[in-house]
Design brief:
alpha+beta; Jelly Rolls; three-stranded antiparallel beta sheet; 2 helices
Length: 176
């Protein structure tokens, strides 16, 4: 049996990276007309992140973070959507405390992340690691590596709620 780290070390990372990059190719006119293809998330991060492609601000720990919606489809379960995104977190930055109205199943395409949960749990995730975040769990992904982290996340979420709900910093939370 080959574990995921062995697969990544021997060519899987190149394949995963190529798949992720091909998924964010520019939207064609046909894709735009059908509502499929690459588009920005309808519910971006907090105020001040209206231009996520801009330069990162040194004093804002979440600046420069992007979430690109790759696809959105109705789930087989009535009232739910399946959404797939590519999240990019620049070196030294973080997603900010947030939650989702459904589960998140993800994969670290590139980078090193500390996934910090409000309940005190902390996950150290590296290139090739999968992760699961329960519905409503407040969490923050901090890039602790040397490159821009890329995470591929798939959500099954309540279609009536925003994909992301953000929260202010906790009183004891320190900046990275």
């Amino acid at each position: 049996m080959i574990d995921r780290r062995t697969l990544i070390r021997h060519g899987g990372a190149a394949t995963a990276g190529a798949l992720a990059m091909s998924a964010v190719a520019p939207t064609t006119a046909a894709a735009a007309a059908t509502g499929h293809g690459t588009r920005k998330a309808q519910h971006p991060y907090p105020a001040g992140h209206t231009n996520p492609m801009g330069a990162a601000t040194p004093t804002d720990p979440t600046s420069g973070v992007t979430r690109t919606v790759l696809q959105r489809h109705p789930s087989p379960a009535k009232g739910w959507d399946t959404v797939q995104t590519l999240v990019e977190i620049p070196r030294g930055k973080e997603s900010g405390r947030h939650s989702h109205p459904g589960v998140e199943v993800g994969y670290i395409v590139r980078g090193d992340v500390l996934m910090v949960f409000d309940d005190g749990h902390v996950l150290r995730l590296r290139t090739g690691d999968p992760f699961f975040i329960p519905s409503g769990a407040v969490h923050n992904a901090r890039n602790v590596g040397t490159v821009t982290t890329m995470m591929l996340s798939t959500y099954v979420v309540d279609e009536t709620k925003p994909l992301v709900t953000t929260y202010e910093r906790g009183p004891t939370e320190s900046r990275p």
